[in-house]
Design a protein that fits this description.
Layout (H helix, E strand, L loop, with lengths): L1 H23 L4 E7 L21 E4 L7 E6 L5 E9 L8 E3 L1 H6 L8 E7 L6
């Protein structure tokens, strides 16, 4: 009986450890991207850094500050890697808000919005 109970507890602990590891696995999501208006240049972000429209940074609802993400424009297949340093409001319909320079690299300045694929790059996180 003790052996059975020990094996049951061991099994439950193993499943909990696997479940926690699966939460940290990077998952690709799709959504709508926008970019910061120029008036925000120089203002403080939620991380405390000053926003610079010429840097490759972005705001996201949930990703940890400092996380690097690969953003791919689904309309023209262009890509950029940005670092998350700001927050989007939880109720925002946008998935990511990019710096002006990142939006330029994704070629959607004129459109203002575009559909993107967002892939966290955990191996590059500082």
């Amino acid at each position: 009986m003790r052996f059975f109970l020990f094996m049951l507890i061991l099994n439950v602990c193993f499943k909990m450890a696997v479940a926690q590891d699966s939460l940290s696995v990077a998952t690709t999501t799709t959504g709508i991207a926008s970019f910061y208006a120029k008036k925000f240049n120089g203002r403080r972000t939620a991380s405390g850094q000053k926003f610079n429209q010429d840097s490759l940074t972005a705001a996201h609802k949930t990703l940890t500050f400092g996380t690097y993400v690969l953003v791919r424009n689904l309309k023209n297949d262009s890509t950029v890697i940005v670092r998350i340093n700001d927050r989007l409001p939880k109720k925002s319909k946008r998935s990511i808000d990019l710096s002006y320079k990142a939006a330029q690299q994704l070629n959607f300045i004129k459109a203002g919005l575009t559909k993107v694929e967002i892939t966290p790059l955990d191996s590059l996180k500082r």
